[in-house]
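Q: Hi! Curious about what Glycoside hydrolase family 88 protein looks like structurally. Here's the sequence.
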Amino acid sequence: MIQIKKDLQAAHLQPLLQKFWDLSGQKIRNIEQQYDTSQGSPVFTVKGHYTTRGWTEWTQGFQFGSAILQFDATGEVEFLNFGRSKTVAVMAPHVSHIGVHDHGFNNVSTYGNLLRLMREEKIDYNAWEKNFYELALKVSGAVQASRWTPIKNGGFIHSFNGPHSLFVDTIRSCRALMLSHQLGHLLQAENDVRINLLERALLHCQATAQYSVYYGEGRDSYDIWGRTAHESIFNTKDGNYRAPNSQQGYTGFSTWTRGLAWAMCGFAEELEFLQTISDTELLNFGGRDEIETYLLKAARATCDFYLAHTPIDGLPYWDTGAPNLHKLGNYLDQPADPFNNQEPVDASAAAIGAQGLLRLGKFLKDRGEQEAGETYWQAGLTVVQTLLQEPYLSTNPDHQGILLHSVYHWPNGWDYVPEGSTIPRGESSMWGDYHIREVALYLQKINNQEPYYTFYNGVQ
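A: Let's find out. The predicted structure is below.
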């Protein structure tokens, strides 16, 4: 269980953040100069150098988005120029990609961040450039919404596995639909049927809350408060839910911690976004109270599970049901050990989950729930402090990653295992590197009293 540092303040992390951004810029330059783009998008490192892995193209937006975040944090124009030029030159296929559930990752990280910077007056206003970003986001949200599976009492955006498959991580792609909606767009389907993108996003959130998250209500023998299933399987003939499953975790009845982290972050940021929508508009979809109830229940449950099932320093192992965890003894009562020989730690899950803890904490404090909000907020700070230091911060100039000990797909054996070890360690991933940058930027903006960082700042 995480030992929450109750006296830690965001300002205390500023020296670590400064060091982080210095190292981060070096890593971005290294990849830009040395990575062979003919391989495809960089995904994760092997012996400290980024390589690719053909599954789906879901990480390229993190590469260019990282450069955009670096500019936002430091003002170094070279990173803006790189991120912006690559977005224009390379990202268009991701806008129209009909085969993935990753539009929130690729397109919000690039077009969304660039539009946000223009709205925040961090880059010069240009009407045609603004229109370009907005058009990309409009189309991206509609294309993502078209990947739809109807079920009883709703529906969901299905994963790349097919129409039967609901992934917990797709909660973060709901951002693409919400941005598109806020820009005045919709999905126009057969016979000119006009589909509301906010409605589809909320239905997906509701399905994720209902089927991907557990609440200790007796759904199965392993139903405890806040655990998540990576994949939920449906019968597409009649719309009935059938079973939990896992693609990257150990089993459908254990919790893959990166999937848990996607849910923590996704539900918290959707709660924040909901505050920008009027009560009148939400009446069309059940009303604010009903929507906030299921979003908040899922956010609390997943964050509570993370707090209870993570070692004291806030860094989780890759799956809470991993088969060899018992060989580590009382692993929850000590700091995570990325150098053990039983089960890998996944620092990328911590980077994603920390943002969820911080956002939920702030949301609750703003609602007057000071004690509960403070618990999540301080837990988030505790996790980030661990991540910003060795052995998780990559200080080796020859290593292209910034966040070490990230895991991609351990069941498939895709992660590099160094000589002398039986598990992966010491490597980085594009999603881990992007999300540690994102949570670092989130806290730096708070320290600098800049506009609060959200995915929807560009459309307000």
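A: A fun detail: The mean pLDDT is 97.
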